[in-house]
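Please, is this right?
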Amino acid sequence: MASEQLLTWEDIVHLPEKEMPELIDGRPYLRAAPRQRHGVVHGELQVGLRLGDPKLAMAWWIVVEPDVRLAQHRIVRPDLAAWRKESMPELTDDWPIDLRPDWVCEIASPSNSHYDRGPKSKVYLEAGIPWYWLADPQERTLEVYQNQGESWRYHGSFTDGDVVGLPPFDAAVLTMSELFGPLPKGWPGT
């Protein structure tokens, strides 16, 4: 049996951007197109973080769907990623970004939740990314994890009714009900 070729950035960079896979240990992973609630959570997180703490923009770069090379065979595109300005003084136009983010957030969808919780979470942990948030629009939860070296330390899961400041952006207070948008018809309590 022939050994499997491990892909690198050079193998995928020529593809149209919308068709570029992420690489986890050299294997391609294609993500499904996001659904509407994914987009709502995406936008609300960006706005909520910036409005919740006006000083955030002075201390952090928050980037939407950057291509990040964590290792030769590990290239990811988190939904949101952030770098402290002390580690990245100027926002780079490098593609992919070769500097490990200080925070990543994935917004799960029914087709990729297992991927965000499994292989991708493991890659983030092994790369030393300090903070990982996982938002699930279907479940209306936001989970927060801190890297402890060998495992993720679970900080909690937050949902409708919760108004919280979450690490590493503690000063940015987020209202979970606003983050996930209006309750869908047929949802318990509607």
Q: What stands out?
A: The chain is about 25% helix and 30% strand.
